[in-house]
């Protein structure tokens, strides 16, 4: 078996794909909260993606990718049996797992997949784990069954009310609190505004929030500083110091600005890819 | 008869007006005539000062003599007896500080252009199929791992392979060469040259593996279970930032990020490649070393209206290689000396709009004898720039030391070595920027070669 080979590909929604990949060295040392950097082709960029699951015996890792631009669209077009060009990891500092009592894991969109291994690790450490899942609409709400099977309580929300509670994860957290649920710590992964408002609310409710930051990354090894974020007034490199940080005092607005730096180029790149892609496969 | 008084040949360079729009190699290889005429200037000194001042002791008078006799392949082999990367050193060595700075002809007629001759020899031997990898000794059955694939590890790996050991090089990134690949631009060091030199080392049986970050993918302790010795050549890949307010504004790059985007990821070919880069109209580069020159010259090639290097001290203290400063100036890079950045100014979208600075005068010399910059009160001014590249130095990446408690570091963050060049963990050796905290390609190679010899002795003694 060759490293980086895709053993299983499964579509979780129109735009979200799960891959099981042969990568023994990463599987052997992966921990909850870590990620890998992928490259799909010569000339391709380095893309950080969270480790959702791993199997030391089989030597496999599981990642879940949402297609939002050129690179992720290209990845999601890869077929079973094909190979990623490069996979480096596991990168980042694992989430510190301890017994807090009750932990809430909060996932938004593809963040649900990213927070899953953290939920599992906290469960294994003896915590009561509550999952709060959010998506724009029902078809984007992934891994709900897995979360339900794992966690003590699972609350799902959709923005449009097509499934579960209508509203946002913050509404669900407020409701849990109002119902008397005592949450000691929160671990949040999702779109930046969602992490910002959820962190604020959890802080206000005394729930010790943490958020997994997703700045633009390049090497993922602490070499370039492109992933720098401001936490508690200090500059940190998310790829090595994080990506999970205590989130009371993260400068989320700075993070939003810095992740928007290449929007025009990203749009151009995606457009070119889609044009090419249509021509090549002849199916569209 | 040698002809030392003939004018020194410098070779041709691409026209600055043309080259500042592309990434092609600036310095053109000597023609055969130029090479022969330049070789003819060498006196083949008995106690050659040039050779004595080459960090790896390249046998300069001998290789030049062979070249003159038309034996290009043998000349290349002569260089490779002590330096495995002749095509690289010929291009990036600060020759004015080493070999050429000590040529006997320096003051009277101008030094022999040793760098260009070395490069001519290596490139020509390669082209004519005469470049031979050094012979390797009979297999010893011992295995050695090298961490990182920069010049230091490459030199160590080659030297270890030569002694008959089985060597594996582990690189965190997806391509080999360290700073040669991600820092130094192709217009100074074409990518094929790096590829070729690595091919040579591969042909000696060295195995190269990408995507392995030691300390994360595997630990040094894991390596020690699979290998008889380990060489740490992980470099100084941690950017130093200024720490001034506003440094996280959009449009502020570390030199490492900027150069990695351009050189490793080839962002200058975007959208043919996938990694984006952005330079605005006016670029400021902070620093005065090789990284600053490289960043400024790369930025220039991405088409802004102006690129300005802002350096704390004066021209005389600039640590960059002389040729690069010259080339940068020819390409239109401007220099502001005696300037200290104070604050990055930004608009309401967090984008850089300027750099607030103060002017300095030179004061007392520091511990290295360089005169210290002293701020002139009331000299504040704003450089109207929209892109800032911070190139004020690198430190060792702490990941290996942090994940290997037995490895001690000094207060500068570099790995501590004893007099014999050993780290504090038996079987583990180190060299290059990880012990020097930012030096030169040649010193990194020298460390690699010397450590390899120590590892040879260690493995022989069977300790
Ligand atoms: C630690 C970490 C873990 C992540 N885990 C996952 C995951 O498990 N599943 C998943 O689908 N996505 C994950 N992401 C996000 C993923 O990296 C981006 O969606 C991807 O880089 C977008 O690439 P693109 O070319 O398809 O889109 P583009 O159109 O190039 O970019 C879309 C947006 O993605 C962000 N982005 C672009 N390039 C990068 C980059 N090099 N690094 C980080 N963000 C970038 C920017 O905000 C950009 O505006 C993670 C990001 C980080 C930092
Ligand atoms: C922009 C720039 C220009 C320069 N120009 C010149 C010049 O013209 N002339 C000159 O003589 N010197 C120059 N230098 C200095 C010179 O490049 C360095 O001194 C030299 O490259 C150091 O070599 P090294 O092998 O120690 O480390 P590096 O070249 O830094 O290589 C280290 C390698 O190790 C890898 N690595 C790091 N950590 C790990 C890990 N944990 N696991 C696996 N791999 C790892 C890195 O990814 C990298 O590839 C320049 C430096 C820079 C930054
Ligand atoms: S390796 Fe460098 S210092 Fe030595 S001879 Fe060659 S150019 Fe000169
Ligand atoms: S010192 Fe100059 S002249 Fe003498 S051997 Fe060296 S290069 Fe030739
Ligand atoms: S991505 Fe380069 S330092 Fe974090
Ligand atoms: Mg992209």
Automatic annotation (TrEMBL), chain A:
Cofactor note: Binds 1 [2Fe-2S] cluster per subunit. Binds 1 FAD per subunit.
Cofactor(s) the record lists: [2Fe-2S] cluster; FAD
Database matches in Gene3D superfamilies: Nucleotide-binding domain of ferredoxin-NADP reductase (FNR) module, Translation factors
Binding site for FAD: 64-66
Family matches, as PROSITE patterns: FAD_FR
Recorded coiled-coil stretches: none
Domain of life: Bacteria
GO MF term (any one): flavin adenine dinucleotide binding
Residue intervals of the FAD-binding FR-type domain: 1-97
Residue positions binding [2Fe-2S] cluster: 224, 227, 239
Annotated keywords: 2Fe-2S, FAD, Flavoprotein, Iron, Iron-sulfur, Metal-binding
Keyword Metal-binding recorded: yes
InterPro entries: Cyt_c3_hydrogenase_gsu, Dihydroorotate_DH_Fe-S-bd, FAD-bd_FR_type, FNR_nucleotide-bd, OxRdtase_FAD/NAD-bd, PyrK_electron_transfer, Riboflavin_synthase-like_b-brl
One BP annotation, GO: pyrimidine nucleotide biosynthetic process
CDD domains reported for this sequence: DHOD_e_trans_like1 (cd06219)
NCBIfam families attached to this UniProt entry: PRK06222.1
Protein name: Ferredoxin-NADP reductase
Organism encoding this protein: Candidatus Avelusimicrobium gallicola
TrEMBL record, chain B:
Pfam families: Fer4_20, Pyr_redox_2
InterPro entries per UniProt: DPD_II, FAD/NAD-bd_sf, FAD/NAD-binding_dom, Helical_ferredxn, SudA-like
Gene3D superfamilies: Alpha-helical ferredoxin, FAD/NAD(P)-binding domain, NAD(P)-binding Rossmann-like Domain
Coiled coil: none
Domain of life (superkingdom): Bacteria
GO MF entries: iron-sulfur cluster binding; oxidoreductase activity
Segments forming domain FAD/NAD(P)-binding: 143-448
All residue ranges annotated as the Dihydroprymidine dehydrogenase domain in the record: 19-129
PANTHER family, alphabetized: GLUTAMATE SYNTHASE [NADPH] SMALL CHAIN (PTHR42783), GLUTAMATE SYNTHASE [NADPH] SMALL CHAIN-RELATED (PTHR42783:SF3)
Name used for this protein in its record: Glutamate synthase (NADPH), homotetrameric
């Amino acid at each position: 078996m060759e490293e980086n080979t895709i053993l299983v590909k499964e579509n979780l929604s129109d735009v979200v794909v799960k891959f099981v990949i042969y990568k023994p060295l990463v599987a052997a040392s992966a921990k909850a909260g870590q990620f890998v950097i992928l490259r799909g082709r010569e000339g391709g960029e380095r893309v950080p993606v969270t480790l959702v699951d791993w199997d030391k015996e089989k030597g496999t890792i599981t990642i879940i990718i949402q297609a939002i631009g050129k690179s992720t669209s290209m990845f999601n077009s890869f077929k079973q049996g094909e190979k990623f060009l490069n996979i480096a990891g596991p990168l980042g500092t694992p989430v510190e797992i301890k017994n807090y009592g009750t932990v809430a894991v909060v996932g938004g969109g593809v963040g649900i997949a990213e927070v899953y291994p953290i939920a599992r690790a906290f469960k294994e450490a003896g915590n009561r784990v509550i999952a709060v899942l959010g998506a724009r609409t029902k078809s984007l709400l992934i891994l709900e069954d897995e979360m339900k099977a794992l966690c003590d309580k699972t609350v799902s929300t959709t923005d449009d009310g097509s499934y579960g509670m209508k509203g946002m994860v913050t509404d669900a957290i407020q409701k849990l609190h109002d119902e008397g649920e005592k949450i000691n710590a929160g671990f949040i992964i999702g779109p930046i505004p969602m992490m910002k408002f959820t962190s604020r609310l959890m802080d206000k409710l005394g729930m010790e929030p943490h958020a997994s930051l997703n700045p633009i990354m390049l090497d993922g090894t602490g070499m370039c500083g492109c992933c720098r974020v401001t936490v508690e007034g200090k500059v940190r490199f998310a790829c090595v110091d994080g990506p999970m940080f205590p989130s009371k005092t993260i400068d989320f607005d700075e993070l939003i600005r810095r992740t928007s730096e290449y929007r025009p180029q990203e749009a151009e790149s995606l457009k070119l890819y889609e044009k090419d892609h249509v021509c090549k496969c002849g199916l569209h | 008869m040698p002809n030392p008084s003939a004018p020194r040949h410098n070779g041709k360079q691409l026209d600055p007006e043309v080259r500042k729009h592309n990434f092609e190699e600036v310095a053109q290889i000597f023609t055969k005539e130029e090479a022969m005429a330049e070789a003819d200037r060498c006196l083949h000194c008995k106690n050659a000062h040039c050779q004595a001042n080459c960090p790896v002791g390249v046998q300069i008078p001998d290789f030049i003599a062979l070249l003159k006799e038309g034996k290009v392949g043998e000349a290349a082999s002569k260089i490779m007896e002590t330096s495995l990367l002749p095509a690289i050193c010929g291009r990036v060595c600060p020759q004015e500080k080493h070999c050429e700075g000590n040529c006997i002809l320096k003051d009277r007629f101008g030094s022999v252009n040793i760098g260009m001759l070395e490069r001519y020899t290596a490139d020509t031997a390669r082209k004519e199929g005469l470049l031979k990898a050094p012979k390797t000794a009979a297999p010893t059955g011992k295995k050695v791992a090298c961490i990182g694939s920069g010049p230091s590890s490459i030199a160590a790996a080659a030297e270890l392979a030569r002694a008959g050991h089985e060597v594996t090089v582990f690189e965190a990134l997806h391509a080999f060469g360290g700073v040669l690949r991600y820092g130094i631009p192709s217009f100074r060091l074409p990518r094929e040259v790096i590829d070729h030199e690595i091919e040579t080392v591969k042909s000696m049986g060295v195995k190269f593996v990408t995507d392995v970050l030691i300390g994360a993918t595997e630990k040094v302790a894991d390596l020690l279970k699979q290998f008889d010795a380990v060489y740490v050549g992980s470099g100084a890949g941690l950017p130093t930032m200024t720490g001034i307010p506003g440094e996280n504004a959009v449009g502020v790059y570390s030199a490492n990020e900027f150069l990695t985007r351009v050189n490793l990821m080839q962002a200058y070919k975007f959208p043919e490649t996938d990694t984006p880069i952005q330079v605005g109209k006016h670029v400021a580069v902070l620093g005065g070393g090789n990284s600053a020159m490289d960043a400024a010259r790369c930025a220039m090639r991405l088409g802004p209206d102006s690129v300005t290097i802002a350096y704390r001290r004066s021209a005389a203290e600039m640590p960059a290689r002389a040729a690069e400063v010259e080339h940068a100036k020819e390409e239109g890079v401007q220099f502001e000396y005696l300037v200290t950045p104070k604050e990055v100014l930004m608009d309401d979208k967090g984008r850089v709009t300027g750099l607030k600075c103060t002017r300095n005068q030179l004061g007392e010399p520091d511990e290295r004898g360089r005169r210290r910059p002293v701020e002139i009160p009331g000299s504040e001014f704003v450089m109207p720039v929209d892109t800032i590249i911070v190139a004020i130095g690198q430190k060792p990446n702490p990941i290996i030391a942090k994940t290997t408690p037995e490895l001690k570091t000094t207060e500068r963050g570099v790995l501590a070595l004893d007099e014999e060049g050993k780290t504090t963990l038996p079987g583990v050796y180190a060299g290059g920027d990880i012990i020097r905290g930012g030096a030169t390609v040649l010193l990194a190679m020298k460390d690699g070669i010397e450590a390899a010899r120590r590892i040879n002795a260690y493995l022989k003694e069977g300790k």
